[in-house]
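INFO batch 0412 | record 1 of 1 | parsing
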Amino acid sequence: MISNLYLKKGKEESLQRFHPWVFSGAVHHIDGNPEEGDLVRVFSADGRFIAVGHWQIGSIVVRVLSFEDIDITDAFWAERLGVALDVRRAIGVAGREDNNTYRLVHGEGDNMPGLVIDVYGRTAVMQAHSVGMHYCREAIAKALKQVMGNELDNVYYKSETTLPYKAELGQENGFLLGSSQEDVAVENGLKFHIDWLKGQKTGFFVDQRDNRSLLERYSCGRSVLNMFCYTGGFSVYAMRGGARLVHSVDSSAKAVDLVNANVELNFPGDNRHQAFAEDAFKFLDNMQTPYDLIILDPPAFAKHRDALRQALRGYTRLNAKAFEKIQPGGILFTFSCSQAVNKDQFRMAVFTAAAQSGRKVRILHQLHQPADHPVNIYHPEGEYLKGLVLYVE
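INFO prediction complete | emitting tokens
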């Protein structure tokens, strides 16, 4: 039995503009007693149907699945996933021999809030960020196989760290479909080991694909420093771009092992690359030889708004150190993946760092997430990746 939720008078306006969230302060009352993850139907104060979605505990109480009064069935998931796959084929990231790595579902951007699916070759890695999507995981995996057919052998579910811990679901990661020991995927003709079992996110940062390609164009003849390198995506692209040397830095020894493996996979025996397991700030403080291309792609400094001020100080400090160390005529690729930090705030942090350094700095490119991480036009909060490419005199 689906519960019916009634909004306070006037609180339906954002939903009528197709924003896919209902906030707790908008709720007047609920007929029924839904458990977290259950479906609820949302009505205006005067009884007009507005939406249907997953109920959850917190400030966002409903994530909307549909603004039509429909049943959420296996056919619903197949239709939504089919549309998502059509989009990836239309933008040219799916169905290519030289690229089998892409994001198939990007939450609200694909009208499936709380769900992320990344494709690595013949394996899809699914991640639920809501209890409702967790309960639907088997139906989604079944629909995924129906939509992708012979292109897909395995579905790995990886949600231990993304589900609300207070829900106490006792979730363990594992295969919902198939099983695979093959961990190599192809991105723009380059090969990468994908650690979907224990790696960060779904095992690889798919969202930097276009920005890695841009970096490749700037790498020829340059000495490149890739900070927070993780799997070494930027490092491998820089080497293909003809970099004179590439140094990769990450505080995780496991990440350093992975970047070394990925470099060897693509450039066996190439001695242009060296990796260091070291704290980023310590490495920048101690480095003696300046580089003429630096990549700063740190983990999210602000995972919620309460940490915003501290995060902006962190971005300023990190970029100031890079401005201090980079060669004259150098190129700086700098990023923020913190959703709580907007484009203007990030740009101001970098501006402050540039001013502190006294260097002349030009903006060459303003970067963002790629087309397989679409932003729902009614949900601007989905735009999370910000980047700048800077020329430093």
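INFO post-check: The longest strand covers residues 361-368.
INFO record closed
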